[in-house]
Amino acid sequence: MSVSQFKSFIACEARTMYELKGQYKAPDSQALIVGSYVHSAFESPEAFAEVEEKYSDTIYKKRGGKYADFEQADRMIETIKNDRLAMIALDGEPEQMYTGNLYGIDWKIKVDSINHGKRRFSDLKTTQDLHKRYWSDKYGKFTSFVEAWDYVFQMAIYREIIKQNTGEYYTPYIVAVTKENPPNKSVLEFDPSRFDFELEYAEFKIERIKSVKSEGEKPERCEKCDFCRRTKQLSNVIEIGDLI
Ligand SMILES: [Zn+2]
């Protein structure tokens, strides 16, 4: 299990199972490519060159220069590199993998940056706007992008797996940079009480995921994602109140 696979199961079991069986791979979204581009800039020059090479058609215009999204990504990278606090928060060993067991299932995590001396780890996130509000069914209220993308959940799981490996709870930080021009930025910390809720949530959801993954229970379709839209066959009409 990984945090992204868990989130994928919550979003759509049918698509996740289809992907796990290797029958379907969602195309790399533009946002995902921009994300890897920005991340690789803080990993190593080799990693950055690798991403540039892999996605050169997406990044570079045929007549030279980069597409607007990547010019923006370059501004985001510069914004972080020019900020002392953000760079302190990102200071550590990049892209470290750990494994552990939580709720009877093996997990694998990849930490953007971990600093064993300071007992902290950090994750770099790109977002639209630091202060935008998103409706969250999980929390039953408007939240920031951090909750909306389940980053508190991610930090809670990472914190537990890192503890299993090091014997200690490390402090998580998110270094956030926005897609605005000029980009906004922030280093975010978490009140530790937030992690209890996330771990209870993981424990509550994991049995169903295990059962679907082992093909004990039939995966449910979300009827919203790209996979469900592509494979949908209508069999009934719905009242407008069921749309939201
Ligand atoms: Zn779906």
TrEMBL record:
It comes from the Bacteria. Gene3D superfamilies: 3.90.320.10. InterPro entries: PDDEXK-like_dom_sf, Put_RecE_PDDEXK-like_dom. Residues 2-231 form the Putative exodeoxyribonuclease 8 PDDEXK-like domain. This is PD-(D/E)XK nuclease-like domain-containing protein.
